[in-house]
Amino acid sequence: MKLYTNLFSPNARKVHAVADELGIELETQTVDLRAGEQRTPEYLALNPNGKVPTLVDGDTVLWESNAIMCYLAGKGDTDLWPKSAKRYDILRWMFWESNHLNNALNRLFFQKFFAGDNPDQALIERATKDFRKYATVLDANLANNAYVTGDTLTLADFTVGVSFGYAVPLELPLEGLDNINRWWTTFSATKSGSILLPG
Ligand SMILES: N[C@@H](CCC(=O)N[C@@H](CS)C(=O)NCC(=O)O)C(=O)O
Question: Relative to the CA of 66, which ligand 1 atom is closest?
Answer without folding.
Answer: 19
